[in-house]
Amino acid sequence: MQRAKPFRKGPRALGELAPKALSPAAARLGFGQTDIILHWPDIAGERLAQVSEPERLRWPVQPKNAAESGPEPASLILRVEGAFAIEVQHLSQLLIQRINTRLGWRCVGRIVIRQGPVRRRTVGCGKAPQPPEHAMRAAARVTDGIAEGKLRAALNRLGARVLSSSTAAK
């Protein structure tokens, strides 16, 4: 008799939940794993990831004796913004190498380029706007008794943002 996994209490990282949630949708598009979709900026590089996105994996029809020789690699259909299609075409062998290295087996054999608009990825939230000086001073007065420097600095930043957003809402 197998034991059920114990229920894990507490918060979980979004990165733990994303592959499970994306897997059914990714499978419909031919992706057996979500690694290509989730880690496209790591695979292609930030510059290419801004102008391209993996659309689907197209697997060839396997002959009946394919079990002996292993599956044929898939074609990755990649949506690329117009002017960058030539650059992606020149880099396609490198991208294939990076994808296969990431997955650990020869999954992709070729890249098919489809030109079209790409959803813009947000590289990061960037720097938060600097709170006003009066909010910084007020937060520093509240956290003055905290000895730990890094904790005090983090609380100062948080407090200043809270104070500046609450005064802006009035």
Structural write-up:
With 170 residues, the chain is an alpha+beta fold. It contains nine helices and three strands, in the order ααααβαβααβαα. It has a three-stranded mixed sheet. Helix 8 packs across helix 9 (149-169). The radius of gyration is 24 Å and the shape is elongated. The termini are far apart. The model has no long low-confidence stretch (mean pLDDT 78).
Distance between the first and last residues' Cα: 61 Å
* CATH topology-level name of the largest domain: GMP Synthetase, Chain A, domain 3
CATH class placement of the largest domain: Alpha Beta
Number of DSSP helical runs = 9
Q: Are there runs of 5+ residues with pLDDT below 50, and where?
A: none
Pairing-aware structural class of the strands and helices?
alpha+beta
Element pattern in H and E: HHHHEHEHHEHH
Number of domains: 2
**How many strands, what sense, and barrel or not for the largest sheet?**
3 strands, mixed
Share of β-strand residues: 5-15%
